[in-house]
Design brief:
Layout lengths: L7 H26 L10 E9 L7 E4 L1 H12 L2 E16 L4 E14 L5 E15 L2 E15 L4 E2 L15
């Protein structure tokens, strides 16, 4: 369905979609912070592609919410504290295709067991969303770390210019 963003109905539709995707992002952060990984199946399509570049492993490709939940559960098991914080988001809607793109800068706060130092990892997600029967889902999620601060203050190839992802990236 094509949306005319110059009409009132088109602007309302755009706003509804943006709010729904922001709610999806909030639900993801809430599930991760509460370690409620079973909730990811209500956010990701069953065949969603997830690509995670970690500080030690490049890249890890997973399929579906269950695989993502297992990966994160194993990772946070070694932590006494973990908090996922969304810092900034930019969305690009493609409503005529029931699709959207998003770029999100995040920070993870970590306190490891065994007396290791408090650390922060800053990174960026590039997401693809799909709307099915009026509901938005993660269809693809790609993560790249940008900076690890606390343990070794390691900059991980911080890009001076991001590869174009959104149409506004020119």
């Amino acid at each position: 369905m094509t949306i005319d963003e110059t009409t009132r109905d088109g602007r309302v539709e755009e706003t509804v979609c943006r709010v729904a995707i922001q709610a999806l992002l909030g639900a993801y952060a809430d599930d991760i912070n509460r370690r409620s990984f079973g909730g990811l199946s209500a956010l990701f399509l069953p065949d969603a592609r997830i690509e995670l570049t970690t500080l030690k492993q490049q890249p890890l490709v997973l399929t579906g919410p269950e695989a993502l939940g297992r990966f994160i559960a194993e990772f946070v098991e070694r932590l006494d504290f973990f908090q996922f914080v969304l810092l900034n988001s930019r969305l690009e809607l493609r409503l005529d295709a029931d699709a959207a793109l998003g770029r999100h800068f995040i920070c993870e706060y970590r306190w490891e067991k065994a007396g290791k130092p408090f650390t922060r990892v800053f990174g960026v997600y590039r997401d693809r969303y799909r709307r099915i029967d009026g509901r938005w889902w993660f269809a693809e999620r790609v993560f790249d770390p940008l900076l690890s601060a606390g343990s070794d203050d390691h900059v991980v190839g911080f890009p001076t210019r991001f590869e174009p992802f959104l149409s506004s990236d020119g």
